[in-house]
Amino acid sequence: MALDMTPEQKETGKANFNRVVGKLADADQQAQDQQAQGVTRRRFMQGLVAAGATAPVSAAAYFGYRYHGFPSDFRPVRAGLIGCGDEGGVLAGEHNPNFVKFIACCDVRPTNLRRIFTGEPLPSPRRGFNHHYGINAKQDIRQYEDYRELLANPDIEMVVIALPLHLHAQATIDAMNAGKHVLCEKLMAWNIRQCKQMIQIANEKDKLLSIGHQRHYSMLYAHANEVVNSGVLGDVKHIRALWHRNNVRPNPDANARRDRPLLDSWFPLIPAEDRERLTATRIRELGYKDINELCRWRLYIRTGGGLMAELGSHQLDACSIFLGKKRPLSVTAVGGTHFYADDREVEDHVYCIYEFPGPNYNPHNASSRRNDIVTVTYSSISTNGFEPYGECIMGSKGTLVVELEQAAYLWGLQGRSTDVTASAGGGGAPVLDTSSSSAPTERQATATGANAIGQNAVSRGYREEMEHLAYCIRMRELGMESDRDQLQPRCGGPAAMADAVIALTANQAMKNRKRIDFKSEWFDPASDQVPDADMVEQSPR
Ligand SMILES: NC(=O)c1ccc[n+]([C@@H]2O[C@H](COP(=O)([O-])OP(=O)(O)OC[C@H]3O[C@@H](n4cnc5c(N)ncnc54)[C@H](O)[C@@H]3O)[C@@H](O)[C@H]2O)c1
Fold first, then answer.
1. Measuring from atom 40 of ligand 1, which residue has the nearest CA?
2. Distances (CA, A) of 161 to 295, 483, 536
3. What total number of domains does the chain contain?
4. Residue nearest atom 7 of ligand 1, based on CA coordinates
């Protein structure tokens, strides 16, 4: 993320981050003690950091749902998985059967319907149903090739949808009409009109709709957000977000090399078994032009949404959270197929500039040069992965980098090699200070905290998003919470629709080569105004 960061500077940045998270928790604890309130989020954070957190820490407590001590009639929510491809495999691998018990799955590709049970060898997160339910899992988890048949199964309470983008809306609407709660993968839908329909049907049917922007359930991001919102970074006027990678490889098929000399991860090879078993008629019945479109749906506009839908939406989601869930004011974007010379319709390089309102932004002063604007730049590059992915939040008093959903680094004004901590500022608000104590013991204790939840990789939030939805479903059903409205997914329809508006409006800016000002109606589920009225879907199924 930062071009010339040394391992030592990273270590300092990590320790700074953990120390400041702990200090903020301390300060919050003192305030809590004064008010004699119970366990709070920050108090929990303090426990996490102070204890060194060598055992995996339950995100449930942090995100406000129970993990143990359920009422005796709490049963896992019976679920069906629709779409058993790469991401369906991750979700199957990550789910917690104490909350979500899969009893059905659906896919049209025989190889994926098999892999969803067997999984892949470690370190792949696709551990397969057999890992959770034993080698006879197939006996208890019914397999379907038509998701409508799965939806007709009355035992299923909730579905997890990990289908190509163009099918998200139709599958969600069909599921809700069949009486199911839904966790649908991001991007919420192929166009904004569909997002509004999804919210409407959830309201009409009184079903829970959650969208899989997993950063809403990442403790690393939650801690980073606490740091940003504490004010220790000073005035944040710029965030640099990026997702860069290089999956380019020569096409091994000499016959196909003329049309497609290079391959990448959006052009997976198609297993012979899928080619043999899926006839052209069957594929057309499914609404695809051919097997290429089914397996490489990300490359085509009819089925995908390009880099902004697939990658940029994650990071703009994070940026808008860091900026207080604000909506952007404008976007300017440049992008195109600048590298690959094949039939792909989506861009391989994207560069965007968003203007977000700062805390003192005055809408009546919008035309003035002097206004409180936060600029967010986003780039997605497919030919160079030197800097991988993450967000760099640049304040007047400090810099915070969140990298690869796995680590966060914090530095003060003194630079990347200086230890900092948080202390009470003059007005009571915390400020970054050169650390008075950087004894190795303290550094070591804090370094195992927020950046290293347990000894394993930091949870990216997939498991928690499924747990929480299941918790909300069951607790609502049992009438266990006094305030039913609190039992809502953290990334529900309106929040996810905002992410879709932000991503898909950048596509419009790119396509039309112009700066676009966001309209509040686009974010309003009740309004029929959309930023992408020209995106009219063709025969979705
Ligand atoms: N949250 C994340 O970090 C994350 C990461 C990767 C992908 N995703 C999202 O997950 C979704 C799926 O992506 P993927 O990488 O798994 O794609 P994929 O192509 O690997 O999987 C899609 C699966 O859907 C199946 N399918 C297609 N049409 C179907 C139909 N009509 N009925 C039943 N099955 C059908 C395909 O056979 C395939 O197995 C996308 O929306 C993507 O954006 C999210």
1. 164
2. 16, 28, 22
3. 1
4. 87
